TrEMBL record:
Membrane topology category: Multi-pass membrane protein
This protein's name: Putative sulfate exporter family transporter
Keywords: Cell membrane, Membrane, Transmembrane, Transmembrane helix
Compartment annotation: Cell membrane
GO cellular component: plasma membrane
Protein family (similarity comment): Belongs to the UPF0324 family.
Main subcellular location: membrane
Keyword Ribosomal protein annotated: no
Transmembrane segments: 33-51, 57-74, 95-112, 118-137, 144-165, 177-197, 241-259, 271-289, 333-352
Length: 353
């Protein structure tokens, strides 16, 4: 089967297979059929992990870049089943396990002014991305994807949102551009936010809010906040985890919006089961005191699964189409990140004491 044929039959990143146009359901493949793609992706992910640790470079960004460099391997049809499996199932499991990062108690500890400020920053980021998409001739879905990724938790949010947007509305090349852009933006934000906080003489609470509300990657946000001070770290952790907890509501709202756009107000896009799984894990984590060891293993596994999903997606991307998207495709992420930083700073100075 040619690569284009495989792409069509495999559907989008989350396996939205167009069975209506297939004459027969695909047969179940033996385990060995998945091994070439799985081994290729695992090797690329291990290389990304080694380089990230050795050079202190963002892990997800390295996974994306290595995956894109290996995109020619997707021309070999033997890698197709394994890459498709990881891009769908590793993603879903990784999103579910993200629920171990936060509890409802932590979200409730925000306080009303901080909660209002955080929602304001998230709204500004999403609005800026949607407006940028329109200004630069991109699809509205591209703006929603970029805004959601910027507002919530970077690549993880982008993966979850693409689950409801789907490849039929937004091609995978633009999705890959968003992943690359949000990884770069997170790296720049973690460099800029602490410098701004120090230069402006922000209090620990203000600095923690600024870093937690504007840095996309959870690990970078929490690490950056604690790098400022322990008090800022505690504040930044709560703010960042609250953003993660809002993943499910935002995905649900996007699904509702897509349904109204597609069906005149009557059509509905079902909420992906892995978002419900995320909520279930979050609820269990809130109700039961998880041993630290169990929680840490779960979080490490979540990171590994999401890295595999991102790497598999990058390998499956067509580099030619990716290059054809041009600089305009990055503008929603760029403007959303700038708007998020500006709004976060304004809220930190005016609402946080």
């Amino acid at each position: 089967m040619s690569r284009s044929g495989f792409d069509y039959a495999a559907g989008d990143l989350f396996g939205e297979i167009y069975l209506a146009e297939e004459k027969e359901a695909p047969r179940r493949l033996p385990l060995r059929a998945y091994m070439p793609g799985v081994l290729l992706c695992a090797t690329a992910a291990l290389a990304a992990g080694f380089l990230a640790r050795a050079y202190e470079f963002p892990l997800i960004l390295l996974g994306l870049l290595i995956g894109l460099a290996l995109s020619f391997m997707a021309d070999d049809e033997r890698t197709g089943p394994g890459l498709d499996f990881l891009s769908r199932h590793a993603l879903r499991a990784g999103i579910v396990l993200l629920g171990l990062q936060v509890t409802f108690v932590q979200v409730g500890a925000l306080g009303l002014p901080t909660a209002v400020g955080l929602l304001t920053v998230m709204f500004v980021a999403m609005l800026a991305a949607v407006m940028a998409a329109r200004i630069f001739g991109q699809q509205s879905e591209a703006g929603v994807l970029a805004g959601g990724a910027t507002a919530i938790c970077g690549a993880s949010a982008a993966l979850a949102l693409y689950g409801v947007i789907g490849r039929d509305r937004l091609d995978q090349a633009r999705f890959s551009v968003t992943l690359v852009g949000v990884a770069l933006a997170s790296a720049l934000a973690i460099a800029a936010a602490p410098i701004l906080a120090t230069t402006l003489g922000l209090t620990d609470a203000q600095a923690g809010f600024l870093i937690g509300a504007t840095v996309h990657d959870a690990g970078q946000a929490i690490g950056g906040a604690y790098g400022y001070s322990d008090a800022a770290g505690q504040s930044g952790t709560i703010v960042k985890l609250a953003r993660v907890a809002l993943l499910a509501p935002v995905v649900a709202l996007v699904a509702l919006w897509l349904g109204r756009r597609g069906g005149g107000g009557t059509s509905r896009i079902p909420l992906p089961w892995f978002i419900l799984g995320f909520l279930a894990v979050l609820a269990v984590n809130s109700a039961v005191a998880m041993p630290d060891r169990v929680a840490q293993v779960g979080l490490d596994l979540s990171k590994a699964l999401l890295l595999l999903a991102v790497t598999a997606t990058a390998i499956r991307s067509r580099l030619g189409l990716l290059l054809e998207t041009g600089w305009r495709a990055l503008m929603p992420i760029a403007l959303a990140s700038l708007a998020s930083l500006a709004a976060g700073l304004a809220v930190a100075v005016t609402l946080i004491t």
